[in-house]
């Protein structure tokens, strides 16, 4: 399960930013200009999202004690449903949805401030990735929490230090943050609801097996 989650999340991480680039190019008359400069793309793939994504290897669907006590649960996990065509297409759909929401949301909510499209969409992208990792986790480990916090702090420091890429005055404005929060919620909240329903159903199956 851990390897499957890691593989799918790496696909999601790359596809969501590709979707955003595609939307950006289409909206601006199929421009070949890159949405983000190389520095931010490297940061996205490494310091801002790498630790939370790779911390997924610490996740556990069920405890080893429960797996030994209820072998039916372990049997379900060996069917390979965590990594299949179905789960792959689901994550592709999630990536396209979130990439589209972030990019179109940034264009709609910040219609009069398109010069700041990088700060807007990139911040929403990083927050979405960190939230998606949190939604994927079944059993939290202290290193997972540390990875999330470190990544968030590093991105916050980047916003304040690298003024070449980010407008500090614009970022400190309340209007920026509530709109970025709205975009992030629209991209993540529906998936949280679906995940909640799925986990509730999984717990019901777990209880039925225990009975």
What does this protein look like?
The protein is mainly alpha-helical. The chain has one domain. Helix content is 75%, strand content 0%. The chain has ten helices and no strands. The mean pLDDT is 84.
Low-confidence stretches: none
Distance between the termini: 25 Å
Shape: globular
User: How many β strands by DSSP?
Assistant: 0
Task: Work out the count of structural domains.
Answer: 1
Largest sheet: none
Total helical segments: 10
Average residue pLDDT: 84
Radius of gyration computed on alpha carbons:
19 Å
Order of helices and strands: HHHHHHHHHH
Percent helix range:
over 70%
Helix- and strand-based class? mainly alpha
Sheet-strand content, in percent, reads under 5%
Pfam family, one: PhoLip_ATPase_C
Subcellular location: Membrane
GO cellular component, one term: plasma membrane
Organism: Euphydryas editha (Edith's checkerspot)
């Amino acid at each position: 399960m851990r390897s499957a989650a890691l593989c799918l999340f790496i696909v999601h991480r790359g596809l969501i930013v590709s979707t955003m680039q595609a939307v950006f190019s289409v909206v601006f008359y199929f421009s070949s200009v890159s949405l983000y400069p190389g520095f931010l793309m490297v940061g996205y793939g490494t310091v801002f999202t790498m630790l939370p994504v790779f911390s997924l290897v610490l996740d556990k669907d069920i405890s080893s004690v429960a797996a030994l006590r209820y072998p039916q649960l372990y049997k379900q996990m060996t069917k390979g449903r965590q990594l299949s065509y179905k789960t792959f297409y689901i994550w592709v759909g999630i990536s396209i949805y979130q990439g589209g929401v972030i990019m179109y949301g940034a264009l709609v909510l910040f219609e009069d401030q398109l010069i700041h499209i990088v700060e807007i969409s990139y911040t929403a992208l990083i927050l979405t990735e960190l939230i998606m990792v949190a939604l994927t986790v079944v059993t939290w480990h202290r290193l997972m929490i540390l990875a999330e916090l470190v990544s968030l702090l590093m991105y916050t420091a980047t916003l304040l230090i690298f003024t070449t890429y980010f407008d500090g005055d614009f970022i400190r404005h309340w209007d920026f943050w509530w709109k970025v929060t709205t975009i992030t919620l629209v991209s993540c909240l529906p998936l949280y609801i679906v995940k909640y329903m799925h986990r509730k159903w999984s717990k019901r199956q777990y209880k039925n097996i225990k009975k």
